[in-house]
């Protein structure tokens, strides 16, 4: 049974709270910050790429060349019908039995637009083909901007272009965006040892995981196990006591 530790993300200090807790393994979903805290499992490990140390491997360089015609457009977090149509095609093909399979356009708009922090929708389009004038939306990423990096909240892409490895390309391009902006990290969400679905994250160099209350280099992915034991997770009260909150800033008289 899944269990999460979570808190509301709202008010004038939402950005600072998000920045602080994201460094401690939390993720954002609309106006909520959460971190897995299952009673007997500590398998979900937050992962991020060190931008300065990252170098694409041979396969990733091929993916960059294969998608060189994509055009990036970073916009405000505003949902469109084209985005939702792409989102539906992606879910129906890749995650038809997932928890988001029944999401309608209003729920999709809430996912994109309900953000109390600095967020962007980054669209990737291919030039018009077959004589058409309109470019084709190929991929979308909802991305948060932290004080120390970019967080890829949710990404989706055209399932008919699966052979182009767009999921990998989006991560590679976010590394480049972060590098250009002078941001040290790209946050990828959770990595689970032994999970085939999450295995792609471990293929990126300079990857760190948040484990045992600290960020550490992932090393050899096979050295990590999905711990399933009553003592693998500290009690909720102890977890909360160790959370470092941002210092309150008083106002001058």
- CATH domain topology: Aminopeptidase
- In angstroms, what is the radius of gyration? 19 Å
The outline comes out as globular
The fraction of residues in strands falls at 25-35%
Number of strands: 11
What does the largest sheet look like? 8 strands, mixed
Counting DSSP H or I runs of 4 or more residues, the number of helices is 6
CATH top level label: Alpha Beta
Structural class: alpha+beta
**CATH homologous superfamily classification:** Gcn5-related N-acetyltransferase (GNAT)
Q: Level of helix content?
A: 25-40%
**Overall mean confidence score, pLDDT:** 91
Architecture (CATH level 2) name: 3-Layer(aba) Sandwich
Distance from N terminus to C terminus (CA atoms, Å) equals 50 Å
Tell me the domain tally: 1
